[in-house]
Design brief:
By secondary structure, this protein is mainly alpha-helical. The protein has helices at 34-43, 46-57, 63-85, 88-91, 95-98, 100-107, 109-138, 142-159, 161-188, 206-223, 242-271, 281-289, 293-325, 331-346, 352-379, 389-406, 418-422, 430-453. It has a single domain (28-356), classed as Orthogonal Bundle (Hydantoin permease), CATH 1.10.4160.
Length: 454
């Protein structure tokens, strides 16, 4: 940003001039409480609801096991997000650039590339869900609905940080009203609590495995936000309270996710034997609410939630792309590229069954790399010079070891590791194993490196 450029400050109708650069002190603004509305609106969306639906409809989990698993997974995942947010004002840079402190500049390229791919994937997934809803509301073709949503999302992401924050604040009340309407209609059906449903399409291992999948899916959804945790707090003043940063980020994310995922599980339970037919959000809404006014409100909520979540997926995906590639293009141009790639992928989501199974497997894949990455970020001794070779060796080695250790525990349609194949009841424990091994590895590698250095 040149000296002649007008100050960005708190202006909303202005394109954000910064990309991956450190936010200067004279551009710092906002309050920690702003993060509550931002994360609330980002997570009060139909993809969150579908996590709960899929836990029951696809994996056959009983309502009680699903509820406990959803709470556990969200508390663990969003505690990590809250912790990462506490560092953002100090660093003043995007999350994937800040991770160079643990990985080194070279070692950080792979996680940044995966964060970019995750941003593209989330953008595509949410765009598919939103396009289904918009098509039902307007009777437009799927392609027209998708392009309309993509265009709106690109505008939000292109303008950047301040417009995204403002849009999220406005959306809180509307999204809450929409999900309250869905909740009232769902509870009115008086769903009966059921146990494990062995005939569900992806049901394996019984009730314990169902609980394990509930934890895995909810935790994976939460960890999908970890690579962009700092992106929306980096403009805050350096002296912002770390306690406030943690709690506003944690509660703003965990509260809507727990409530909405529980609502999704309750909805799938209410559908009973028809739950496995609700492969898309619009199918689930139609089966649950019919085609009346409440169904229309629910569909409008889906469209709005797509915009709130995907504006952030696109924005952070563009920043991660800049960190990974180091190509000298603007953040605006990067957002256009990421949006174009995500829209192209979303065109293949017109088959609801494919979208449903693809989404659940995509959620599990997220934790396979993000959980070990988060462990390294959490426990690594940060270095003043992120280019140092030690950062590359220890951080990257610990991360790779965590991912490799989790491989035998993977359990999804695309790959079932030897552990869940032999013991189906364990479900998917890959994220716990990956996190623990990466944490232990970074401790051990740093200790040994320190001895060698001495």
């Amino acid at each position: 940003m040149s000296e002649a450029s007008p100050k960005y400050g708190e202006r909303i109708a202005a394109i954000e001039p910064l990309g991956t650069q450190t936010v200067p002190d004279d551009e710092r603004h906002g309050h920690a409480r702003d993060l509550f509305a931002l994360w609330y609106s980002a997570n009060a969306e139909i993809a969150t609801w579908m996590v709960g639906v899929y836990v029951v409809a696809l994996y056959g989990t009983g309502l009680q096991s699903a509820a406990i698993g959803i709470v556990v997974g969200n508390l663990a995942g969003y505690a990590l997000l809250g912790w990462l947010s506490t560092r953002a004002p100090r660093d003043g840079v995007p999350q994937m650039l800040a991770s160079q402190r643990a990985f080194g500049a070279l070692g950080n390229r792979a996680p940044a590339a995966l964060a970019f791919l995750a941003g593209v994937g989330w953008f595509a997934v949410n765009s598919v869900f939103g396009a289904y809803a918009l098509r039902t509301l307007t009777h437009w073709p799927f392609t027209t609905s998708l392009l309309t949503l993509v265009s709106a999302q690109v505008v939000l992401a292109a303008y950047g940080h301040n417009l995204i924050h403002a849009f999220q604040r406005i959306s809180v009340a509307l999204l809450t009203a929409g999900f309250v309407a869905i909740a009232v209609a769902t509870i009115a059906i008086h769903p009966t609590a059921i146990g494990f449903h062995a005939d569900a399409p992806l049901a394996v291992g019984g009730a314990i495995a169902g609980f394990s999948f509930a934890v895995a899916l909810s935790f994976s959804y939460a960890t999908g936000w970890l690579p962009c945790a700092a992106d929306y707090a980096r403009y805050l003043p350096r002296r912002t309270s770390q306690r406030s940063l943690f709690w506003y980020s944690f509660l703003g994310s965990a509260l809507p996710c727990i409530a909405i995922e529980l609502l999704g599980a309750l909805a799938a339970t209410a559908l009973g034997r028809h739950a496995d037919a609700a492969q898309s959000p619009t199918d689930a809404i139609a089966a649950l609410l019919g085609h009346g006014v409440v169904a229309g409100v629910a569909l409008a909520t889906i469209v709005l939630g797509t915009l709130t979540a995907n504006s952030m997926n696109l924005y952070s995906g563009a920043l991660a792309a800049l960190v990974a590639t180091r190509i000298a293009i603007s953040r605006f141009a990067a957002a256009l590229v990421v949006g174009g790639i995500g829209a192209t992928i979303a065109f293949f989501g017109s088959d609801p069954r494919v979208a449903a199974e693809g989404y659940s497997n995509f959620l599990l894949l997220l934790s396979y790399w993000t959980a070990p990455w988060a462990a390294v970020i959490l426990f690594a001794r940060e270095r003043d010079d992120p280019q140092r070779a030690a950062g590359v060796r220890t951080g990257t080695a610990a991360w790779i070891l965590g991912v490799l250790a989790s491989l035998p525990f993977w359990n999804q349609a695309w790959y079932v590791g030897p552990v869940p194949r032999a013991f189906p009841a364990v479900g998917d424990l890959s994220y716990e194993v990956g996190f623990i091994v990466a944490a232990a590895a970074i401790f051990d590698l740093q200790r040994n490196f320190s001895k060698v250095s001495e």
